[in-house]
Amino acid sequence: MPAFHFRQRSGAMNWSKLAKVDVDEVVQEVDLAALQSILDDCTFSKVVPDGNIDNFVKLARLSQLLLEYMLHVQSYQDLRLLSASQELATQKKRIATVQKSLAASQKQNKALRREVLRYQTIMSTCQGLLRQYGIDASSLFLQLNTSVAGDGTQQPPPVPPPPPAAPVSATGAPDAAIAHTCAECGKVFATSEYLDKHMARRHPQEKAPEAPPPPAAPPAPVEPTPPEAEDSSIAEGAMRLAELVAKRKAELVSALPRAAAA
Question: How do the domains of the chain map onto residue ranges?
Answer without folding.
Answer: 15-106, 107-149+230-261
